[in-house]
Task: structure prediction
Amino acid sequence: MKTLDTIRVLASLLSLQRSQWWPAERIEKFHRDRLVETLRYAVTNVPYYRSFGISASSIASHLDLERFPILRKSDLQERAGDLLAAGFDPACLASSRTSGSTGEPTIMYFDRDCLLTCRYAIKMRKLFALTSPLFKRLLVIRALPVADLPRRKQWPIFAPPRLFRIEFKSLFEPLDSAIDFIEDYRPDILYSYPSFLVDLTQEYRSRGLVIPEVPLIFTSSERLTASTRRRIEQSFGARVCDVYGSTEFNEVAWQCERGRYHVNFESTYVEVQPDSSAADDRTGALILTSLQNRAMPLIRFSIGDRGCLAREACACGRASTAFEAFDGRDVDLVTLPSGRRVSPYVVEHWLERHPVVKRYQVIHSEPAKLRIEFTTFDNELPARDFEAVGARIREAVGAEMIVELKQVDRIEKEGGGKYQPVRREF
Result:
């Protein structure tokens, strides 16, 4: 990173530190103005959006967003070239490729300003919101091969004076290698997948080692269940902050000190598309619009996830749009023979209540059959408990589905190093 980039990141960070405390009226005005600017830019500079025949001068308010169709991952796969704005050379842009966990891997491009704001300044803002990272040691676990891990000098904060130290490790390295590194490095702040942290605690215990305290842990990329959060907090003596994001948008929302997921409104505009099974219009599929990326702006992109918007203002004082919870990926919903759609987390609700259950996977093996495989923490689930959990799950899913429970030794990760909660076999 160049010194100029460092200055730009720090300037953006200072601006973000102020904007997170804006009143709701100012945030709403910012959102509407930035959205209109983004829509006008897209229909002028992006071939895909130019093809709609919408003139920039006809876009007058945020309500014009509804003139744009929903953009899906298949569109991003098939028309990536048309979604790149005129004047940008892909060879000169930062890019990220998704792991394909939804079955549709994609590639995204980011201009320099977007990269510095979304990948660095926004990440640093949440750090400063929860602790002072100055002169502390950070460890980031990435789902990348060792050879592809970023180098420390790539971070802009390493221009003099050095503010804090950061190291990267691969999710695919052996756990004993990670333990050896942690024992030597002793991180103050740790970023990782929840499943990796659970596996790490088991490896510590199997080796008879004391798990070191890590005051602050950020989790992302997988759904953080209540039981997993408790296990991580208790094992590391940590405060856990979960982050919701995607390859296409970087970090979208993060948990404040009160536990609410605040949207990074400066870079992302959020819509919720409720469906017939939703209790209200605050719960449904998430539709996101990029307010920052000028190289490849995505408008009304169906991210494939589901969430529930908060109904009340957060006690932390931030007035930005926030989520109360996430309900997994839209593709994960199980469709019953009647057409009713059920979240796999009704299964999780009962499995995670048992202290020995470690991980699970809902396998939709036939149209009217679910097989639920789960692993445990070095214990067998008692037969009586096994039957009770099964009965609760069958009650939640309904009589139209056959539900089988099966305790297994291992649940395999998918290609990107994540655990897939739902899998279809038909």
Q: What stands out?
A: The mean pLDDT is 85.
